[in-house]
Amino acid sequence: MTEQSPALDNLLTESRTFPPSDEFAAQANANADLYAEADADREAFWAKQAERLHWETKWTQVLDWSDAPFAKWFVGGKLNVAYNCVDRHVDGGHGDQVAIHWVGEPGDTRDITYAELKREVSKAANAFASLGLVAGDRVAIQLQMIPEAIFSMLACARLGLTHSVVFGGFSPTALRSRVDDAAAKVVITSDGQFRRGKAAPMKANVDEALDGAESVEKVIVVKRTGEKLEGEVPWTEGRDLWWHELVDGQSDEHTPEAFDSEHPLYILYTSGTTGKPKGILHTSGGYLTQAAYTHHYVFDHKPGQDVYWCTADIGWVTGHSYIVYGPLANRATQVVYEGTPNTPHEGRHWEIIQQYKVSIYYTAPTLIRTFMKWGKEIPEKYDLSSLRVLGSVGEPINPEAWIWYRDNIGAGKAPIVDTWWQTETGAIMISPLPGVTAAKPGSAQRALPGISAKVVDDQAAEVGHGGGGYLVLDKPWPSMLRGIWGDNERYRETYWSRFADQGFYFAGDGAKYDNDGDIWLLGRVDDVMNVSGHRISTTEVESALVSHPTVAEAAVVGASDPTTGQGIVAFVILRGNVAQDEAKGEEAITALRNHVAKEIGPIAKPRQIMVVPELPKTRSGKIMRRLLRDVAENRQVGDVTTLADSSVMDLISSGLNSGK
Ligand code: 6R9
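That is the input. Now the predicted structure with 6R9 docked in place:
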């Protein structure tokens, strides 16, 4: 990847920059001196950030890296994570501040103050303790976005139980393998969940998953859909307990115990390129420090003033760090929304922003492109003037989507923070700082103060400005993963073997520096195509397609090709406001192919472009290119269990077959 292909040049032509306004800069949490301060003494910098938290016992050493790649941060320190996220704010006189404006999909709402959150978490902690759970035990949680999901996570943290949240849409097989791997003693779920206006069973899936699961002693069931759910909720006497029967009668007082800074806080499974999912392990002190630090600076969050909304699901790491731990540690008032963005109508998010005067909004590029597809007329109907910071996470954001987001959601002025990080990194690593950075659409730009990232070539040598290669993290960071649950060897192998001599963490992402030395993420290294010997990233072709006025979303894969090695096959979704039949026609498709050639170069011209109604995505919004490659190569479509909506592949295949 050292040699520069024409495709890699393309993103460099994106030269628009958006410096912060004086007004924003004057009030910003961050300032440019933070970088120098962190560079001067990294450990002192992190020690200062750790002071954001309440420590029962102070640490004696900031970082112990002697057993690399197994890090220990804030060695000897003791704290309770839930105390830091809840009780501390009540003790500080903020018990009446709303912690969570919860909005249910059917329209029911609940405002939860910090005082109430403390009572709910205490009751749940007393309930879990009554089941005999002790610090170190694992609890699996498969819940939709309801308050009990957050109460459960915090109650676990309060007792030193290690939670493993499994996304609500995952299949019984996926749940079972995660329950078994962590040997979870308790599983928390609900009777059913509302999805697009309908009640769908949850408990029935959990029962299917747990058939014969040996570690599981109790299943706690939150009643959410109740009468609305068709059929009986299957029940195993002696094992299953209703949440309200177990929790409601408990005392709402509970004294938290302080745990070691390195006490395991949670396991979160993420899919590997092959084989079984990896249980990414996060611990307490360093994790919470970086979650709180990044939430404070990257979102310019002001407690008591801002209303923050992160649209992620708690089944994803973004929900852990930027709904539960970071914001609550920082005494945020936040919106938590249960449902999908188009239930009951496509303006639902904007309606919620208008109603609660949301000031910070953090979402994923896939959703921004979906909003583009629905059309700007929809957000135009709402008052979004409360918004002052916009965030993006999960994928590279195409410059066109970035500009659309800023213009149509951010009134042409809200700073956008494009935040790069991973389940493994635990918290944001590369991002502009609002009020400091002159933002560039499509680039995450620069490692945060205290963090070090580099783009290197195959030989681990840092590439020059304008060069592309692999993204590595060359220094340990507080919220880094502490391993893969039960598999130290796989941890070393997956992340630390590629650049073992240099001790770099291999992120698995392709990246490049532009001429100013800013970092552009180019997608997973396995998403790089090789067309006639030219390395072209899927991201770049997708960006070129989305920059065309008829295209809302695009996914690009490299399909094997007898002459060129790989050929570029693109799947596109058209924008809502274009004449669909015309835009699907041969002429329009040729125009699109030429558009890509013009934007990137003839080598990047897609061999084939297919217009589809939907794209296969995981719930965290990542396109599953593996499945599209199956379609492009005329294979039977592979495992779809991690898709947010598994019917999408049928929709794509049937659309294509009928179109031919
Ligand atoms: C937080 C999260 C991690 C992978 C990561 C990269 C992609 C995330 C990005 C981004 C470009 C961004 N990614 N944020 N790529 N720009 N701002 O998404 O965690 O689900 O573990 O995914 O997502 O490829 O390696 P996770």
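The chain has a mean pLDDT of 92.
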